[in-house]
Design goal:
Blueprint: E1 2-7, E2 11-16, H1 40-54, E3 61-62, E4 72-75, E5 90-93, E6 99-104, E7 108-114, E8 119-125, H2 127-132, H3 134-144, E9 153-156, E10 166-167, H4 169-172, E11 180-181, E12 188-190, H5 192-202, E13 210-211, H6 227-230, E14 237-243
Parallel strand pairs: 3-6, 4-5, 9-13
Antiparallel strand pairs: 1-2, 2-14, 5-8, 6-14, 7-8, 7-9, 10-12, 11-12
């Protein structure tokens, strides 16, 4: 059910995999996303399994309804206020034993952490959020509550690869040329995860501490949910992190 990205005495991070029987069925597999049309009973059961995996209560799994914004929620208490449940695409916290995470199905999920400062973050970066600076905004919020950029590490969950992220020129032109592949008579392809990694490096995060997941969600439909393969009304990968 889970693939761990990082584990030690103070940090647990990971992302879900589908674990499905029929990859063509849009909700078949593990998903804790409750706003893309899945049955609530299925979502609740997956949340229960995740809570058990992380050794926390279900209420200690915190996620926002993402809107492809560049806005960051700073979580200061286990109960997420109603006004913070919608419209945020990243969560930053110093709380222990609380799972924070983001739902994706092609967009780039990232977890960031400064172990020494006890600051963690989960980021959802679609192309709109990436261009608007969601990853950089998250890093700045981390620093505001005690993190040091030079101590930040990060892991990228699975996302759509350059091989499959085909876009029109109106989108391609929003990215630096080094992250766009243009071919005559064809649509452009964008390296979205590479672009987000580059943004963090420009802010001072060490390149060697940012680990990319090279798996393309669109190419690996049996393992990951992909909105390009299944449609928007489908399950989601959950990429999460917690302090212990």
């Amino acid at each position: 059910m889970m693939f761990e990205l990082y584990r030690n005495d103070s940090i647990l991070a990971g992302n879900s995999v589908r674990d499905c029987r029929n990859a063509e069925m849009p909700y078949d597999g593990f998903s804790v996303c409750d706003y893309t049309g899945d049955e609530s009973s299925h979502v609740d059961e997956c949340r229960r399994r995740l809570a058990e995996f992380c050794s926390v209560d279900v209420d200690e799994i915190i996620q926002c309804r993402q809107t492809h914004s560049a806005d960051v929620c700073v979580l200061e208490q286990t109960e997420l206020p109603a006004e913070q449940r919608y419209g945020y695409d990243a969560i930053v916290t110093r709380l222990k034993n609380v799972v924070i995470g983001v739902n994706t199905a092609d967009c780039v999920p990232i977890v960031l952490f400064d172990e020494a400062a006890g600051v963690i973050a989960a980021v959802h970066a679609g192309w709109r959020g990436a261009v608007a600076g969601i990853a950089v905004n998250t890093l700045k919020k981390m620093v505001e509550i005690g993190a040091k950029v030079e101590n930040v590490k990060g892991y990228f969950g699975p996302s759509i690869g350059e091989c499959c992220f085909e876009v029109g020129e109106e989108v391609a032109c929003r990215f630096p040329d080094e992250f766009v592949v243009r071919r005559d008579g064809e649509k452009s392809h964008v390296n979205l995860s590479g672009f987000v990694k580059h943004q963090l490096e420009k802010e001072g995060v060490k390149a060697e501490t940012l680990i990319l997941n090279e798996n393309c969600t669109r190419c690996n439909q049996s393992r990951y949910f992909s909105a390009r393969a299944l449609g928007i009304e489908s399950g989601r990968i959950f990429t999460f992190i917690m302090r212990r």
